[in-house]
Amino acid sequence: MKRNILLTFLTILVLLNSAAIGYYVYHDQKEHEENEEPPFHLMKSSDVDFPTTFSLAGEPVPLERIDVAEAFKKELIVNTYLHSHTIQVLKNAPRYFHIIEPILKAEGVPNDFKYLAVIESSLNPLAVSYAGATGIWQLMSATAKELGLEVTNDVDERYHVEKATRAACTYLKKAYQKFGSWTLAAASYNGGMNMLTRQMDRQKEKNFYDLLLGEETGRYVYRMLALKQIMEEPHLYDFYVDHLYPVEPTTQVKVTKNIKNLADFAQEHGISYKTLKRFNPWLRQTSLKVGKHKTYYIAIPENKQAYK
């Protein structure tokens, strides 16, 4: 009797011990599996698609060079994972490229320079930098005046997309004539022609990709390359943007006399003061003084009902 009880007790101990060992083995294995990295083919890559060949304004980018390839890839990564910024740029592109592209073509400036406007202002015609550079092409006041734009208390044509684009073209063509390279012309738009000339003379180099420049100007062209690649091949970077902002057709109202009150002017043309300023941000006051022999053209949206 006692022997049977002892055997039963020992059997129970063995079973309990086996169950405990099984539990801990299972638990440890499951915890290990949960912490283990997923198979390689299931992991989401943090790298980006990289082109095998590339050009800017018809000039080849030497991607076979380690320094060039890595600088380009850096800007691709930054702008691929800067989602909100890049999505907004993609949505804005049809509206502003519709204006910019024909002007670039007419002025003889390569179409790729529309991406310069992208990196300057994110295609925001109201953009103002901490240094005071203004508009879609981010022009400083003195530079804008040199390029033929009107910058006064009443009128600031840096906010005028068409006129500012022509002014930017004037600068870029002058830079191209000086350097013989559109890539260097792009770099000079950021750093200035004088700075770029000094660095080229000091370093005895004539190719942008051989120049050591400050971080801002050094990254500038690569940012332009990155936005060109992403905006031309957005699906490669997981951007599938619907509902792009539409082109907004306008009619131009010729103005040769002072406008005492722009709110009244807006009402006379069937729109609000807010809508008038939306389409004409270059009008900086509530009135407009028109000098002798001066003419302005004020844009009025064709679809007025869309803004009421």
TrEMBL record:
Domain Transglycosylase SLT: 101-209
Biological processes annotated in GO: peptidoglycan metabolic process
Recorded GO CC terms: membrane
Transmembrane segments: none
GO MF terms, alphabetically ordered: peptidoglycan lytic transglycosylase activity
Pfam families: SLT
UniProt-recorded name of the protein: Transglycosylase SLT domain-containing protein
Source organism phylogeny: Bacteria, Pseudomonadati, Bacteroidota, Bacteroidia, Bacteroidales
